[in-house]
Amino acid sequence: MCRQSATVCLVKSPALEGVAGLSLVERLRVLPDPRRRRGVRHPFVTVVLVAASAVIAGARSYAAIGQWSASAPQHALARLGARVAGGLGMRVAPSAATIRRVVNLVCPGGLADLTGADPGSAKSLAVDGKAARGSRHGQTPAAHLLAAMTDDGRTVTQLRVPDKTNEITCFAALLEPYDLTGVTVTADALHTQRAHARFLVEKKAHYLLVVKANQPGLHRQLRSLPWKDVTARRYDREIGHGRKETRVTRVLTVTGLGLDFPHAVQAVRILRHRTDLKTGRCSRQTIYAITDLNSQQASPQRLGQLARSQWIIENRLHFVRDTTFGEDASKIRTGHGPENMATLRNLAINTLRAAGHSNIAAGLRHASYEPFTRPLDLLGIA
User: Fold this and answer.
1) What stretches of the chain adopt beta strand conformation (E)?
2) Kindly report the CA angle at 24 between 50 and 57, in degrees rounded to 5?
3) Closest by Cα among 252, 258, 241, 255 to 303
4) How far apart are CA 90 and CA 83, in angstroms?
5) Is the Cβ–Cβ distance between 112 and 159 less than 8 Å?
6) Fewer CB within 10 Å: C terminus or N terminus of the chain?
7) Tens digit of pLDDT for each residue in 12-39?
C-alpha cells in the first residue's frame, strides 16, 4: 500500500527508480490514477497539472483552481493535454468538482515523492513537521505534515503523520526511498532517537541531532563535558531582523567517553547571545547537539552551519506556506486534500526557486500577471 501512513490509499506508491531526469509530466504519468474507469472523462495527468499551474498562479482553494481551469484559453488547455470534444475540436477544462475529487484521492506519498527534489546532490537535509491548522474539524485533529528540505531550500518529500502518534513514527518512512550517501540529516530534539541514528548510518548518511531535556540522561552527559577546556571553537557575529547575535560554537570529540548514543563521534555546544537593538534586552541560550561526523569531516564552523540549516525548513517552507499561501487559513479537510494541497504548494515553491525567485510572494505575483503561460513555462509543460 501507499507509504503514506496517515490514511490508507487504494494504490501502491510508485517506485522512484528510473524517474531521475524525467520531466514533471513524465513523472506524473508514473502515478496511478485513483479513479474508477467508468465515467472518467479528463486525463489524470491533465487534472494534476491544472491544479499545479493554478497554485503557481496564486490559487489557494479548490474553487480558485476551478475558476482558473474554467478561464483557461484553448492554447493553455492544449499544452495541459485537456480532452477534445465536439466536431470543432474544442478543448474542455476539468471542473472544480473533478479537480477536488482527484486531489482528494491521489496517492499523497507518491505525489510528494514524484514532485519533490532529488536529495542526492545536497550537502544536508533538514527534517521537521508542521500542522495545517485549518484542516482541524470537530474531533478530528489537524493534519500534521513531516517534510524534508535540502540546504538550498528545495523540498524533497513529505508525509502526513498518523493521528494519535507523532513525527517519530514517520522519520524512517520519510527518508527510506532515497539514496542519502554522504548527506548530513539534521533534526530537532524530538528526533534525537537511537533508532533514527542507526537508520541513518545504515543509509550511509550522517546526522546532527539536537539534544534537549526530552533525553535527560544524554543531556546531562553533554552538560557535564569539560567545555571550558575546549580549544576547537568558532565565533560568529551578525546583525539583522532587529537584533545583534553572537554565537560561540565549541566542539568536543566524545569517542571513548562512554556517551550513550550510537555512532556518536563529536558533541557540539552552541552558546547564543542576542541583543534586541530596539529595547536593548539581552538573552542567552545554550544548545547541545551530537553527530557522527569526525573532526576531519566537520569543523566547528561546519557544525555551526549545519545547526543553523535546521532552521531553513521553518523559515523557507513552513513560514512561506503560512504567509504566502495562507495554509493555516485553508479549510480543506477531507480525504488526502490537506497533504496533497501542501505538496502542490511545495512544488510551486521549488519551481519558483529553480527559476531564480528568492521571494516566493514576488514570484507568485510575477506568474499571476500572465496566469496561463508563465506557470506552464515554469513547470516545463510544452
Assistant:
1) 83-85, 90-92, 124-132, 143-150, 155-161, 184-187, 206-211, 233-240, 243-253, 266-276, 282-291
2) 35
3) 252
4) 8
5) yes
6) C
7) 556 676 787 889 999 999 999 999 888 8
